[in-house]
Design brief:
The complex is a heterodimer of chains A (482) and B (95).
Chain A: E1 4-14, E2 51-52, H1 53-65, E3 73-74, E4 76-80, E5 90-94, E6 103-109, E7 118-131, E8 135-137, E9 144-148, E10 155-161, H2 168-184, E11 197-206, E12 216-221, H3 224-243, E13 251-256, E14 261-264, E15 277-278, E16 285-286, H4 289-296, H5 303-314, H6 318-324, H7 328-340, H8 345-362, H9 374-385, H10 391-404, H11 408-414, H12 423-436, H13 438-445, H14 452-462, H15 469-480
Chain B: H1 5-14, H2 21-42, E1 62-63, H3 73-77, E2 83-84, E3 87-91
Antiparallel strand pairs in B: 2-3
The chains are: A alpha+beta (482), B mainly alpha (95).
Chain lengths: 482, 95
């Protein structure tokens, strides 16, 4: 029996503000427990929340980046539940009137065993602002739980997708695209180890074309690998359960990354009765067009726009354009390199996606940790483009730049890597070769053109690899013709 | 809409309120009165009027994104029943 997996994601992104969403306490990660938990974060009596303009602005940036409706008026609500890391007894969130409405994100799903890479549009249902909770530490405090409220009140943008994904690979591609986008527009640092970007996955299965099945929600997945493993395990578990005649109960589950299994959380039947209501402490949030346009003016060029421009103006392939815009840092590196050699987009792309990426992968670094600057790379490429060095010599220059740094022109000079372009000198070499190999010359002249390669090899060897290959070929052809 | 005594117990449980039967009866009667008032208000013709989410028809004032609070942990924790290594200690919660 054929099964279809249906996945929707809820992603919590911590916004990169300096202060909390409703208080003036710092949001810096890694501080000593509770030194960044002020009276508002602790819910002491008599305090009032005041909304952080920086958090709202980041939400607007996101809305603009995904082509979503930005609500001129949105409302904060109280989501009521009791847990010690939430001292107020409710979380301030948004319910029926969120700040960001429907949008979409185009994802690139990589090659799988099933076939070719493909693009897909995932619809976003909404995104809303809310406050993060504190942290519970369940280590041994003699039967007690330790509470650190430094994180309480850190601004979150919860981004909710439609159930548009049909495989773990699509869910991961979506999460990665979102991760890249929030960093691209500079609203979240994307640090998954520190919990800045956390995914909940709603998973259900059905027969293709049937109604949606009952879903189970996997909570708090903080790596792409866990997201993939958790969805794959969960979907298979649901399929096995249904095929064995069982039914799926709606539930919240946790992923045990050690055992690779999902497990239902013990929860009371009415744990999800949050009794949302508008928070009387906060007035409706008004956003006018002027503010939206002002924020739009500060947004960097977005990946899709860059891709289109790279293809149309720079003549790159769609694949190259996609790869070069995989992160803002990569795109910036490419464009800065290109500034040095403005007519050589393809050359820049080839080196970035080839030698540079390979070297980065070998050392498990990302583009921001590249030991070669775009300026250095661009200067080296300039020397390939103007014929000063061959591609082979460039690899040598690249190696030295990578391990020792320096100026490409100086390296070319010191290492004697300049291409031989002196026609007289090359002709002299060719004359010697022809004189020393009369038998092969006769073969060539009698029509065995294969022998040409033999001469090319000799000529390059004689020039110690420095001859300009195109020029040398031309001279060889001319001289051999007799 | 009528409210049963079981609804009162449910809301009390969700709000972690312990209620005696007598208190629940009293709350039930009071809530029924409030529901009566709501029913009366709902009879008013509000066609074409946008619902308000706050009693005042003004919008939220915003703060600039600046850190203005300094560390007052010692002061705050002086009022806590139990603290250790800077953490607030609470009865164990295991999910």
């Amino acid at each position: 029996m054929q099964w279809e997996i249906v996945i929707g994601l809820e992603v919590h992104t911590q916004l990169s503000t300096s202060s909390k969403i409703f208080s003036g306490a710092s949001t810096a990660f890694g501080a000593e427990p509770n030194i960044q938990a002020c009276a508002v974060d602790l819910a002491l009596p008599g305090v009032l929340p005041v909304l952080n303009r920086g958090a709202v602005e980041r939400a607007i940036r996101f809305g603009l980046a995904v082509g979503a409706h930005i609500a001129p008026r949105s409302v904060f609500s109280r989501k009521n539940y009791f847990y010690p890391d939430l001292p107020k007894g409710y979380q301030i969130s948004q319910f029926d009137l969120p700040i960001i409405g429907q949008g979409s994100l185009t994802i690139q799903v990589p090659t799988t065993t099933a076939g070719q890479p493909y693009k897909k549009v995932v619809r976003l249902t909404r995104a809303h602002l809310e406050e993060d909770a504190g942290k519970s530490l369940h280590e041994d405090f003699h039967g007690m739980t330790g509470i650190d409220l430094n994180r309480a009140g850190t601004p979150l943008l919860e981004i909710v997708s439609e159930p548009d994904m049909r495989s773990a690979a699509e869910a991961v591609a979506y999460a990665k695209m979102l991760h890249s986008l929030v960093r691209w527009i500079d609203i979240c640092d994307g640090n998954m180890q520190e919990g800045s970007f956390r995914c909940d996955a709603n998973v259900s299965v059905r027969h293709p074309g049937a109604e949606l099945g009952t879903r189970r929600e996997i909570k708090n997945l903080n790596s792409f690998r866990f997201l993939q493993q958790a969805i794959e395990y969960e979907a298979q578990w649901q399929i096995d359960t249904l095929e064995n005649g069982g039914t799926i109960q709606q539930a919240t589950v946790l992923f045990d990354s050690d055992k690779g299994v999902t497990r239902a959380m013990r929860s009371k039947e009415d744990a999800h009765d949050y009794r949302y209501f508008p928070d009387p402490d906060l007035l409706p949030l008004a956003i006018d067009n002027e503010w939206i346009e002002q924020v739009r003016g500060t947004l960097p060029e977005l990946p899709l726009s860059k891709q289109a421009r790279y293809v149309a103006d720079l003549g790159l392939s769609a694949y190259d354009a996609d790869t070069l815009t995989s992160s803002r840092e990569m795109a910036d590196f490419f464009e800065t390199t290109l500034n040095e050699v403005p007519k050589e987009a393809k050359l820049c792309a080839n080196w970035l996606m080839g030698d540079v990426s390979a070297a980065l992968n070998r050392e498990d670094r990302d583009i921001t940790q590249c030991p070669i600057s775009p300026g250095q790379l661009g200067n080296m490429l300039k020397r390939i483009a103007d014929g000063t060095i061959s591609n082979v010599a460039a690899k040598e220059v690249f190696k030295i730049l990578w391990s020792e740094g320096g100026n490409p022109d100086a390296i070319i000079e010191i290492k004697g890597l300049k291409q031989m372009s002196d026609v007289g000198a090359m002709e002299a070499l060719v004359d010697e070769i022809i004189a020393a190999n009369p038998a092969q010359v006769a073969e060539y002249r009698s029509g065995k053109e294969k022998v040409f390669g033999f001469f090319v090899g000799l000529a390059m060897k004689a020039s110690k690899g420095k001859a300009n290959p195109a020029q040398m070929n031309e001279i060889l052809k001319r001289k051999l013709a007799g | 809409m009528s409210l049963s005594i079981n609804d009162v117990y449910k809301v009390a449980r969700l709000a972690r309120l312990g209620m005696t039967e007598q208190e629940a009866q009293t709350a039930h009667a009071q809530l029924l009165n409030i529901f009566g008032l709501i029913a009366e208000m709902q009879a008013v013709d509000t066609n074409g009027i946008a619902p308000m989410s706050h009693a005042q028809d003004i919008s939220q004032r915003l703060r600039e994104d600046v850190v203005t609070e300094h560390n007052q942990r010692e002061l705050f924790q002086a009022a806590a029943p139990q603290v250790k290594e800077g953490l607030y200690l609470v009865p164990q919660v295991i999910e």
